[in-house]
Amino acid sequence: MIARKKEIRILKDYFHKKESQLLVIHGRRRIGKTYLVDYMFGEFKEKHIFFKFTGSANLKSSIQIDYFLEAINEWFKERPTVEINEWHKAFIFLNKIIKSKKEKIVIFIDEVAWVDRNNKSGFLNAFAHFYNTYKEKNDNLLAILCGSNASWIKNKILKDSRGPLYHRVDKEIALKPFDLKETKQYLEEKNGFKVGDKNIPDIYMAIGGIAKYLDYLDPNLFMNENMNNLFFDINAPLYNEYESMFKSLFADKGSHYKKIINHLSTKRIGYTLKELETQLKIKRTSLQQHIDDLIDTGFIRGMNRFSQTSKDIRYMIIDSFVLFHHKWIKGISKNDLALYNSYYDTLLNEPSYKIWQGFAFEVLCISNIHLYLQARGIKQHIKHMGYWSYIAQNKAEKGAQIDILIEYENHTYDIVECKYYNKEFTINKDYADNLENKIDKFKETIKTKKYDLKLVMLSAYGTKDNAYSKGLVNQDITLSDILD
User: How far, in Å, CA of 171 to CA of 255, rounded?
Assistant: First the structure.
């Protein structure tokens, strides 16, 4: 198991609790939730009983119950002697089987949102009654509810004050994609890749840190061949993944969420809630719920404007796979794929692709900001990460835009400039003037004379030392610094 040390520690700790516990695990499709639990309790050396049931999408309740009973027979070799066609009876049957057992029991219900999406057949109520009554008399149960639909889990289990499991969950685990450093480790240690640091963000910009997507990569092929096979072949496994992902997460409401994502993809720096409400003509309450769900699933992030209120939050896409899909996959038909030959190789040589990589690298840096902070070596507590802008008041002055501004304690600030080149980045006079203008304009907005402001260059191979960088760049951070 690579990169899931925190989650494994949590599962171990709750396994050893001296009372029955309920855990909830959620994370996007193909991120490795099921693998984590299977690995954890399949490899666990201490004596325990492991029962697993997986919900199935778009199946009626009677079939789901049949599959549940079949899973009970598979794990416990027990079949009911009377007909069971309701969930509460199914859990009564499960309780009869396990209540006499003394060893630790792990009950893992995967894709829980698929079992009874609208709770019409009473699954959640039946499970809650089973868990609560069992817990009162027994201390040997670890129940795990797991699913890809984070918004369903939050709304039906964690936040619904009238729901049967409200305040019953002992621990929530939100499984995130691998960060850039973990992706490198996964590719090298699990998949046997031998690649340089520059290849890691090239891969990450297309597929992010999703375990299953990384498993599609063949270590015997070059990266351009892998990208062609993943996206630009007639049978490419990730060509239809975007549609499948939204259907898995949001079912029949997927189109509402895609509408927001589609609009966010049209503007690099994103939109405020007010702009989205006006342009998409969606009611504020509904829009805010959709935004919250997209944040929970890790597709978007809100970036606050420095020293401003929440109304200035700009929402932007930070999921690398979603960005890649909208820029390079969305407009390609199956007919196009049948005609293309090594299309990704063509993209690599296009100026538009190199420009897009510069933007995608900045997004990558935002989603991996914790790695930047580690490399930066700042000990102060981070207070805020956001953006800042200044609109010129007349023709004599210039506006300014800072895309990544980090504020620490004690009026300490980083202006982070992200540059993605195949060699050292060279600051010329025009760019130096632009940077100095940003710094000067931002200084004017700081409401105290006591501050510490640093300009940090974050790039693939570093910034070339020349007359323009001297006295301007305070720290130069490279990919190697991030990935070491």
Answer: 31
